[in-house]
């Protein structure tokens, strides 16, 4: 824009402002407001370009999601077998902990039992040594624990007495409910580096005050109840719901074993 | 380019928990004891460093207007894949860290660093930023966790330091204890910073880019222009 032109425009603006009866500054302000209003109207208009942009952005997001889903599908498929194997290995380790030494393929002996008119189900594993049955392990779960699901493994001797009891899966409050559900070695600095003495089965696992009460109880006495509910199991104060869930799991395991053995006798 | 600064700023000067105040939920919920805090910290560090790397590498392809949803999808997919891989191949590690992995998706540190740093910087800096922020997060969590664990049970990392610990200060192991310990740590940190500023002859002010108004995530209206 040349100097002349600019002067001409300034002249025109001054004349226009005079015609409308206002000074140049407020005329400029008015012009600015009009321009802004126009831009706003422009933004409200739906044009082909804008629609195309929305489709482009949506399409891009779709592609990203589809790509992510593809990767997840692939990862899920590729790790399915190893994950199942890892789960089975964990189960095998837990079974070794709660049963006396056995030599059969225990996971193959899995048997499903649904006592209590099918209200819940349990998986029963039979341990054998040299072709002779030596113990049973029962896997049960409940949704009634404080943190939702709780899963346990309970082992029984051939006399149908509880040998060992571990919680394999839980989500109880750390430091409160988890103290009931987990077996924990009490470590201090003095014992930290001392060599651990290995105890013979069934005392091989660290102590758990609530869990250990069940050792030696016969399935004939099941179902058990907490002392606060008129039974003979001591819970932990402050963690009644967790203690109750543990009691329920032991009872369910015992009832499931009774059910299976009853069926076997009939057969 | 000062690579070591990108790493070390996350540990004290821009500590994600104690200065940036990000990720409050996991830092209060998983610090009941030292080992949980350590587990959460390590898992987050891994995801943070790797997601920063991924986001930095795609930063030029993603259109600005939809970058945040894209980042969330990338982070969530990444965490899911890590979760599956850990389940399949590292059984004992998964047992220790597994419950923290799903929590990381909703951890705002990961998204915060993606938006504020990785979307504007190169691969190496972004990776170092993620690793440094993760280390700072881990240190802060372990500090809070150990204090809470000692006060509530007399143990450190499940080792009884005070044998026959006489009091049961159970509240320290629960959510309120987290807030209380956090408050004391923040006060202590402010005290140290203020003392340092006084020695240098001035008042302590938070760095300008730490100010809320300068938060990168809140500057969305600017994108419209």
Explain the overall architecture.
The complex is a heterodimer of chains A (267) and B (225). Chain A is of the alpha+beta class and 267 residues long. Helices cover 50% and strands 17% of the residues of chain A. Chain A folds into 2 domains: 3-44; 99-266, no CATH class. Chain A has helices at residues 3-20, 24-44, 48-98, 115-118, 177-181, 189-192, 209-212, 240-266; strands spanning 111-113, 122-129, 132-145, 148-157, 162-169, 187-188. In chain A, strands 1-2-3-4-5 form a 5-stranded antiparallel sheet, with helices on both faces. Chain A is elongated and about 115 Å long. The mean pLDDT of chain A is 85. Chain B is an all-alpha fold. Chain B has a two-stranded antiparallel ribbon with strand order 1-2. In chain B, α7 packs antiparallel against α8. At the A-B interface, α3 and β6 of A face α4, α5 and β2 of B. β6 (187-188) of chain A pairs parallel with β2 of chain B.
Topology (elements, then pairings):
The complex is a heterodimer of chains A (267) and B (225).
Chain A: H1 3-20, H2 24-44, H3 48-98, E1 111-113, H4 115-118, E2 122-129, E3 132-145, E4 148-157, E5 162-169, H5 177-181, E6 187-188, H6 189-192, H7 209-212, H8 240-266
Antiparallel strand pairs in A: 1-2, 2-3, 3-4, 4-5
Chain B: H1 3-8, H2 24-29, H3 34-58, H4 67-89, H5 91-97, H6 101-105, H7 108-118, H8 123-153, E1 155-156, E2 159-160, H9 175-199, H10 220-223
Antiparallel strand pairs in B: 1-2
């Amino acid at each position: 824009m040349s100097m002349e032109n600019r002067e001409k425009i300034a002249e025109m603006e001054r004349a226009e402002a005079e015609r409308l009866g206002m000074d140049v500054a407020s005329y400029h302000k008015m012009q600015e407001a009009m321009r802004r209003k126009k831009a706003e109207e422009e933004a409200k208009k739906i044009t082909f370009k804008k629609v195309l942009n929305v489709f482009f952005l949506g399409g891009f997001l779709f592609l990203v999601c589809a790509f992510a889903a593809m990767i997840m599908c692939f990862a899920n498929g590729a790790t399915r077998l190893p994950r199942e194997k890892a789960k089975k290995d964990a189960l095998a380790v837990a079974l070794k902990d709660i049963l006396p030494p056995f030599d059969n393929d225990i996971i193959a002996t899995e048997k499903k039992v649904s006592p209590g008119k099918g209200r819940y189900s349990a998986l029963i594993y039979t341990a054998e040594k040299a072709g002779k049955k030596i113990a049973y392990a029962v896997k049960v779960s409940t949704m009634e624990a404080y943190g939702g699901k709780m899963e346990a493994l309970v082992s029984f001797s051939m006399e149908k007495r509880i040998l060992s009891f571990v919680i394999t899966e839980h989500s109880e409050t750390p430091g409160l409910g988890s103290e009931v559900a987990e077996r924990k070695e009490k470590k201090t600095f003095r014992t930290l580096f001392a060599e651990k003495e290995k105890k013979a089965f069934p005392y091989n696992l660290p102590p758990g005050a609530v869990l250990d009460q069940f050792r030696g109880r016969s399935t004939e006495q099941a179902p058990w109840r907490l002392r606060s509910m008129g039974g003979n199991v001591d819970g932990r104060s402050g963690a009644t719901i967790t203690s109750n869930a543990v009691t329920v799991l032991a009872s369910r395991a015992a009832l499931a074993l009774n059910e299976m053995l009853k069926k076997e006798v009939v057969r | 380019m000062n690579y070591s600064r990108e790493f070390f700023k996350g540990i004290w000067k821009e500590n994600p928990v104690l200065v940036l105040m990000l990720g409050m939920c996991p830092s209060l919920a998983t610090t009941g004891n030292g080992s949980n805090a350590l587990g959460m910290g390590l898992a987050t560090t891994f995801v943070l460093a790797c997601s920063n790397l991924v986001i930095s590498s795609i930063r030029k392809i993603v259109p600005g207007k939809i970058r945040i949803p894209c980042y969330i999808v990338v982070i969530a997919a990444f965490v899911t894949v890590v979760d599956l891989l850990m389940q399949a191949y590292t059984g004992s590690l998964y047992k220790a860290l597994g419950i923290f992995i799903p929590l990381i998706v909703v951890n705002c540190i990961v998204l915060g660093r993606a938006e504020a740093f990785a979307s504007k910087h190169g691969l190496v800096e972004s990776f170092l930023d993620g690793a440094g922020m993760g280390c700072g997060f881990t240190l802060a969590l372990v500090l809070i966790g150990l204090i809470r664990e000692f006060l509530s049970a007399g143990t450190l990392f499940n080792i009884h330091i005070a044998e026959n610990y006489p009091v049961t200060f159970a509240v320290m192991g629960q959510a309120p204890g987290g807030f209380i310990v956090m408050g004391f740590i923040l006060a202590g940190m402010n005290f140290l910073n203020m003392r340092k500023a006084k020695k240098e002859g001035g008042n302590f002010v938070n760095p300008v880019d730490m100010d809320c108004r300068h938060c990168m995530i809140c500057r969305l209206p600017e994108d419209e222009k």
